[in-house]
Amino acid sequence: MHALKAKPISDEEGQLFLLLRHLDLTPHASQRAIASAIGVSLGGLNSQLRAAAEAGFIKISDRDGPDRRHRFAYSLTTRGAAEKARLADRFLARKYVEYQALHAELTGSGSGHVPINHRTNLMQNNLAPIPELYVSYDSSQKLKVEAADLTSWDLSPRQICDLELLMNGGFNPLKGFLTEADYDSVVETMRLTDGSLWPMPITLDVSEKFAESIEIGQDIALRDQEGVILGTMTVTDRWTPNKSREAEKVFGADDQAHPAVNYLHNTAGNVYLGGPVTGIQQPVHYDFRARRDTPNELRAYFRKLGWRKVVAFQTRNPLHRAHQELTFRAAKEAQANLLIHPVVGMTKPGDVDHFTRVRCYEAVLDKYPGSTTAMSLLPLAMRMAGPREAVWHGLIRKNYGCTHFIVGRDHAGPGSNSQGEDFYGPYDAQDLFKEYEEEMGIEMVPFKHMVYVQERAQYEPADEIKDKDDVTILNISGTELRRRLAEGLEIPEWFSFPEVVAELRKTKPPRAKQGFTVFFTGFSGSGKSTIANALMVKLMEMGGRPVTLLDGDIVRKNLSSELGFSKEHRDLNIRRIGYVASEITKNGGIAICAPIAPYATTRRAVREEIEQFGAFIEVHVATSIEECERRDRKGLYKLAREGKIKEFTGISDPYDVPENPELRVETEGTDVDNCAHQVILKLESMGLIAAH
Ligand code: PPS
Hints:
Layout: H1 2-5, H2 11-25, H3 31-38, H4 42-54, E1 58-64, E2 70-76, H5 78-107, H6 116-122, H7 137-147, E3 151-154, H8 157-167, E4 176-177, H9 180-189, E5 204-206, H10 208-212, E6 219-223, E7 229-234, E8 237-239, H11 243-251, H12 259-266, E9 271-279, H13 295-305, E10 310-315, H14 321-334, E11 337-342, H15 354-365, E12 373-375, H16 386-399, E13 404-407, H17 428-440, E14 443-446, E15 450-453, E16 458-461, E17 473-474, H18 478-486, H19 498-507, E18 516-521, H20 528-542, E19 547-551, H21 552-558, H22 567-586, E20 590-594, H23 600-611, E21 615-621, H24 625-631, H25 636-641, E22 663-665, H26 672-685
Parallel strand pairs: 3-6, 10-11, 10-13, 11-12, 13-14, 18-20, 18-21, 19-20, 21-22
Antiparallel strand pairs: 1-2, 4-9, 5-9, 6-7, 7-9, 8-9, 15-16, 15-17
C-alpha cells in the first residue's frame, strides 16, 4: 500500500514526536512528569530537551515554582509546531502499519483502513478505499440475531448478485435497491435523482403477495437460497413498475427475444421494493475463492503492486488468441496494467458455464506477463443491455479501481430480436461510452473486431488492415466454434490455445456424446405418448446413453399428483418436468418429455434451463383438435364437451401453437413408427446421434 511506502518513522523521530506533543499539551509539567509520560529516564529526557532546543523546536525559559525551587518552562517554536504536525502524520502511519500487521495476524486479512491523509495526499482516486454498505463484524453479529425476527425475502440468484455488488461498493454510489423516484429517473435519464450517472435499474422485484405483507418503513431481512441473512433493507418504497416502459427505455425494445426483457416479464416479480441496505455478510462462494475480490480488495492489491493505471477487460466467454491480442494491445495503448475481469455471476443463457471458463482463464494466464496482469472474478448479473450495459460496466470497473476499460465490438450484445435483426448496432456501446467517458472518470480503450491475417500470422483489428485484398483473413465466429466443438471437429491453433480447447472439450463433448431432451407438445390424445414410447425404444436399441421417459400421465402420477389444470398448476407441472429433464441432460442422458405444455413462455423457460446442458428438441405433435376429439381415446373430450371436465386444453383452455419447433409431426395419415423415425432423423441431422 502507499501508506507503507512513505518513509517509516525512526525511533528517534517517534521519541521526538512524543516529546513535542507532550510539551504542547502540558507546557508546565515537571521534568519527572514528562519523563514518565513519554517513557524515558530523567537523563534521557534532558538530552532530548537539549537536542530539541538546539534544533530550534522548543524554547526553554526559567520560571519559579511555588516551592521556590528552580524550574523550567517549555514551549514549542513555530518550527517545533510544524515538525510536530509532520511527525504526527508519520507517527500515525507507523501505528497504522502496526495495526494492519496485528489485524492481519488476528484475522488473516488486512483491515482495509487507510489514514485519511494518505487517501488524499498519496493516493490517486482510483486507489483510495470506497464506501461499502457492510457494518463492522461486531455489529453484524448483533444485527444478524435481530434480523432473524424480521420478515424475510428469499433472494433470487440475480438479486444475490446485485446485493453483493451493492454491499461491497461495486455499485457505488448506490446505497440500496433503487427507490421509485430513482428508478424512474434511471429508466428515463440514466441518472439518479441526485444527478449521478447510473444507467441500470437495480431493483428488488418481489411477488404481489410478499409486497402486500409488508409496510413502508419496515425492515426486512434479505436471505440467500440457503436462508443465510446477507443484509437488511428498510423498505421506503413499493410500486408496480411499468415493465414495458422499462424494457423500451433500458433495453431498447419491449421484445422478449431480449434475455433481460424476457426475465423482466416472465421471471421478475410484479412489484418493486426500494430502500437502503445494511450489509451483514458477503454471499458465500465455495468456488474459486482466491480469485474473488471486492472493490476495496482490488484497490488494495493495486496499491500494493504500485499499479496506477489499470485497464479492465470484461468477458463472459473463454479467452482465445484474438482476445489475448486485444488485451495485449489495449494494455500497450493505455500503457497500463491489465485486469482480466470475467463475469461469473449470471451471463447470457447458453453461455459456457463459469467453472469451465475460469479453468480456461487460468490456463491462459500463464501466457501473460505476471507482473503486469491480474485476474479477478466479478459476481455480476449481466443484463445484455449493450450501450447502457457498457456504461454500467465502466462505472463498476471504476469502483474496482480501474482507470481504463476495453469496449469491443457489440459489447454485452444480446443477439438478434424477434425480427432476426440485432438489437444494437455493433459500435453503439462505444458511442454511448464515449459520450459519458469524461464524467465517468474511466477511459475507454475502444476495439474493433480482431481477425487473423494468415500471411503475417497475427491478429489485427479488421479496420486497420490496409492490404485487405492481398492477404488471407481468417476468423471463427462463436457459432462456428460451438459447431466445431459440438461435432468434435478440429479447432486450429491460430484460433485458440490447446489448453483452452481441451477444457472446452471436457465440458462440451461432441454432441453425439452429450445428453439432450426431446420435448413433445400437443393436445391430449394427439399421439405424444405413443410416439414418445416408440422413440424411447428406438434409442434404447441404439444404446450408449440412458433414456428416461417423462410422459404427461406418468409425471402427474409420480411428480405432480397434487396438481390440477389451472395455468399456475400446469406451469408448475412443466417446470418440474423441465427440472428433471435438465438434470438428466446435464448428466449425459436422454430425457423424453410428453406433456401437453400449452404455454409458450413456460416451454421457453424449460428450453433455456435445458440448453445450458445440452440440446432441446421441441417436437410439436400437430394433430388437430378435431382429430383428437374424434379419436377420444380416454373419453375425456366427451366429458369436456359436457362440461364435466373444466379447463380442458383445446376445448375450454388455450394452447399456444409452437412457432418454431425443431420438428412438427403430422400424425393424421402417418403411422407411429414413421413419426418416431422422423424424430430420429432430426436427431441425426443435429449431430446428436453419430453415424456408426
Ligand atoms: S399440462 O398442461 O402439460 O400440465 O398437462 P399434462 O400434464 O400433460 O396432462 C396430462 C393428461 O391429463 C389429462 N387431463 C387433461 N388434459 C388437459 N386439460 C385438462 N383439463 C385435463 N384433465 C385431465 C389428459 O388426459 C392429459 O393427457 P395426455 O394425453 O397425456 O396429454
